[in-house]
Structure to design on (393 residues):
């Protein structure tokens, strides 16, 4: 494991140097070879890209799936390169990131119940996080150590983060701080697409069933805070776009018991995710098999 | 203080929905989270909200929460101290 992390660190350093010396074009060129290297390992492809590609492109044969795997890896690398370039070397004068729904978010925040931003590992999610400082209240990011490390490594280095981190891999998973932040009218951002441990809710996604952490829905139920489903996509080499894909207001789920509440909100979230991967199929960056056999209820 | 403990046990059974658990099953020194009651971090969220609702006391962060949420005794002590501090009066409990 240490060797693999060392190799990864060397790889990242090479990319940083390439970016500095040759700009984004140079880094994209290098990325081609890295992406080709990754698709030459069939065993890893079966674990990392095929589970998603089989569902998103069910009629694609093996050769097309291989090409799509290349596109996925390349697209992931491009998003990271663009994020790093803009954050570390780019001019901040350009509208590299557009946020057309920002005023809608501010309206939701003004309702005073706090706001949960439910995001996912899609597009340049690291870049989206670095742009949350534009909101008028304190933004708290519920995340674990690995995600914080990625942000600091790729995006923000020694700069002060534009949000407060609430660690979810500690005692009680950062829940006390999260509910307190919401009660103070603040924003809490949560990645909703990966269940690591603890309670989950299952929802249908791309013809199968995936597990989602129940945390955002439980926080919404307890605090009355609305959930804004927020995803970022790379539009072209000049721009990312942060957009609201759905807003889940607690009153829409009034009268439901807790489990029904969780299930209903989870289904709305995965519908937004499905719409996203329909529009941007090569910006889904969960490189593992997240599907499980038919579970339909929240587990204790 | 006994009333606070009694109320907390009722909240845990009724509001956190622990079927089959009776008041006398919850000891004052029972570990609330990660123990035999089977409560987890999501229940902690509910409990923080319920403590605010029933007692008007807010648990603000993990510095306060870690000790307060350990057992019924510690939570009751926390609530009692906060209620006493806010009203400036001795609370008979």
């Amino acid at each position: 494991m240490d060797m693999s992390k060392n190799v990864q660190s060397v790889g990242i350093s090479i990319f940083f140097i390439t970016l500095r010396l040759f700009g984004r074009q140079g880094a994209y060129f290098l990325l081609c070879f890295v992406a080709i290297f990754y698709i030459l390992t069939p065993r890893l492809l079966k674990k990392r890209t095929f589970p998603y590609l089989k569902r998103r492109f069910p009629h694609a044969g093996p050769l097309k799936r291989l090409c799509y795997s290349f596109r996925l890896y390349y697209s992931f690398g491009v998003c990271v390169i663009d994020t790093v370039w803009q954050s570390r070397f780019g001019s901040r004068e350009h509208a590299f990131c557009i946020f057309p729904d920002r005023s809608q978010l501010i309206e939701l925040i003004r309702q005073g119940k706090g706001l949960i931003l439910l995001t996912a590992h899609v597009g340049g999610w690291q870049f989206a996080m670095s742009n949350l400082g534009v909101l008028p209240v304190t933004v708290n990011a519920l995340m674990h150590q690995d995600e914080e490390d990625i942000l600091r490594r790729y995006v923000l280095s020694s700069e002060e983060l534009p949000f407060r981190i609430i660690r979810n891999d500690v005692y009680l998973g950062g829940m006390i701080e999260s509910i307190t932040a919401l009660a103070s009218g603040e924003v809490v951002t949560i990645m909703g697409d990966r269940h690591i441990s603890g309670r989950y809710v299952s929802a249908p996604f791309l013809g199968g069933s995936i597990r989602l952490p129940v945390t955002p829905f439980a926080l919404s139920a307890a605090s009355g805070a609305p959930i804004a489903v927020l995803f970022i996509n790379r539009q072209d080499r000049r721009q990312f776009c942060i957009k609201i894909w759905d807003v889940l207001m607690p009153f829409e789920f009034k009268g439901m018991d807790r489990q029904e509440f969780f299930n209903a909100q989870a289904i709305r979230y995965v519908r937004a995710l499905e719409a996203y991967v329909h529009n941007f199929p090569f910006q889904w960056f969960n490189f593992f098999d997240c599907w499980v056999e038919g579970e339909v209820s929240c587990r204790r | 203080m006994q009333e606070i403990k009694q109320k907390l046990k009722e909240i845990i059974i009724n509001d956190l929905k622990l079927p089959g658990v009776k008041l006398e099953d919850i000891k004052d020194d029972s570990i609330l989270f990660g123990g035999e009651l089977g409560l987890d971090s999501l229940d902690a969220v509910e409990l923080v909200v319920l403590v605010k609702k029933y007692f008007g006391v807010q648990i603000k962060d993990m510095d306060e929460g870690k000790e307060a949420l350990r057992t019924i005794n510690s939570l009751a002590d926390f609530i009692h101290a906060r209620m006493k501090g806010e009203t400036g009066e001795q609370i008979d409990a």
User: Anything to note?
Assistant: Chain B touches chain A at residues 33, 38, 40-42, 44-46, 48-49, 52, 58-62, 65-66, 69 (CB under 8 Å). Confidence is low (pLDDT under 50) at residues 87-93 of chain B.
